[in-house]
Write a structure and sequence with these properties.
Helices cover 34% and strands 23% of the residues. The protein is α+β, with helices and mostly antiparallel strands and 421 residues long. The protein is globular, with a radius of gyration of 21 Å.
């Protein structure tokens, strides 16, 4: 059987792998993407998209109108352990947060990779991988050998590629547990805003309700693995969702639309390998999830694009340069923010600290507006730790600005003076 030949093989066609494939194909690299699952396929997730993720999706060329489950958010409501509730409005210019089911979002990203010129072999697993002096050889189920100069492992938290290279962490099962269930016929409060409840006994974890079109919502919770056993999640979910303040928001007519599902979230950037010989790791395979919130789509997209940039810059023969470029880019764009949010997450383990944070953030219209920006966009944090990443006017609005000046029929707001000063 004649082997397939590519410049780069990407293992995993989720957000990280698809973003890498788009970046590589646009740079003129012959790219083959493998995924053991045929698309479309479901992915257990909260389905929430932060401003950082939305900006990257816009950069990749995604059209929100092509995703029927896409729902732009106008505000976030947070309830502190004390019972204090604060509503944080998002800018009406563009989209600062949205919800989209991963089955549709990931499929749309795979289509973008194909349109960019990458060859996508979904439903084809990578059965083995070996690294030689000048290439990587992958055995593809039902296809045969694939020879490439480099490989990008975007194959999830369990990363078979990491295991094939002998780099797996023994007994590692993630840092967060998340538990999700879709609901139909939710009440008006659940359809109007994103909701987050900080319940005292699961801090720094939280319960969420993110609206979807047609009166649906993605409802779930996330907790640290260090404080909660996997086997306790189903019982905990039954107890959390029946609490009066949560049940009231979901509404009396809310009904489960599927069975609940749980999944692990890795937040081990700096501890999981980023690169080995001719292989770069990104997305969950590199543990890039936010240690404060567990959010990972934006980080996955960014790490995939950084991996693509590193390989394009290094050229086909300089593997040490590829690793160096990638590690440097991840340190600049992800690691410092990762350290900062991990520290903040530890602070939120205290109910008193969580109450104080929500109280202070909701003290004035200015704090409410800017806290929403800080929570859903990393530029305010970047100003503190990575000022070299600051972009003029970045806080003036969200993503998809020209196509979505108004959200849910309301007029877009003009950029404020502070946004352009």
């Amino acid at each position: 059987m004649k082997p397939l030949v590519a410049d780069v093989a990407v293992v995993g066609a989720g957000p990280a792998g698809a973003a890498a494939a788009v970046g590589l194909a646009r740079a003129g690299r012959r790219t083959v993407v493998l995924d053991r699952s045929p698309f479309p396929r479901d992915k257990c997730c909260g389905d929430g998209l932060t401003t950082g993720a939305l900006r990257l999706l816009e950069h990749l060329g995604l059209d929100p109108a092509a995703i029927t489950s896409w729902r732009a958010a106008t505000s976030l409501v947070i309830r502190a352990p004390s019972g204090l509730e604060v509503a944080y409005p998002f800018s009406r210019r563009g989209q600062c947060a949205a919800t989209a089911q991963r089955r549709q979002l990931d499929s749309a990203l795979v289509s973008l990779a194909r349109r960019a010129g990458a060859e996508v072999l979904d439903g084809r697993a990578c059965e083995s991988l070996t690294v030689g002096a000048d290439r990587v050889v992958l055995q593809v189920a039902g296809v045969g050998p694939l020879h490439a100069r480099y490989a990008i492992a975007a194959d999830g938290m369990w990363s078979p590629v990491r295991r094939m290279l002998g780099l797996a962490l023994p007994a590692y099962r993630g840092d967060w547990h998340a538990f999700r269930q879709y609901y139909a016929d939710v009440g008006p409060q659940a359809t109007a805003s994103m909701r987050v409840w900080f319940e005292p006994e699961i801090l720094p974890g939280y319960v969420w309700s993110f609206p979807l079109p047609g009166g649906a919502a993605n409802v779930g919770f996330g907790v640290l693995r260090a404080t909660h056993r996997t086997g306790s999640l189903a019982g905990l979910w039954d107890e959390l969702r029946s609490r009066p303040h949560i049940a009231e928001v979901l509404g009396a007519a809310a009904t489960p639309a599927d069975r609940p599902r749980a999944w692990p979230i890795p937040t081990r950037l700096g501890e999981l390998p980023l690169a080995s010989e001719r292989v770069l790791f990104c997305g969950d395979a590199a543990g890039v999830g936010d240690p404060m919130t567990g959010e990972g789509i934006g980080q996955a997209l960014l790490s995939g694009l950084l991996a693509a940039d590193a390989l394009a810059a290094a050229g086909p023969d300089d593997e040490s340069a590829a690793r160096r470029h990638y590690r440097s880019a991840v340190a600049r764009h992800l690691e410092r923010d990762f350290v900062f949010t991990r520290w903040l997450g530890r602070a939120l383990r205290s109910p008193a600290a969580c109450n104080a944070a929500v109280g202070l953030s909701g003290a004035t219209p200015w704090t409410r507006r800017n806290f929403a920006r800080w929570l859903f966009e990393d530029y305010p944090r970047a100003l503190v730790l990575t000022p070299d990443r600051w972009q003029r006017g970045a806080l003036g609005g969200g993503a998809f600005d020209e196509a979505n000046v108004a959200i849910d029929g309301e007029p877009g707001e003009e950029p404020s003076a502070e946004a352009v000063s």
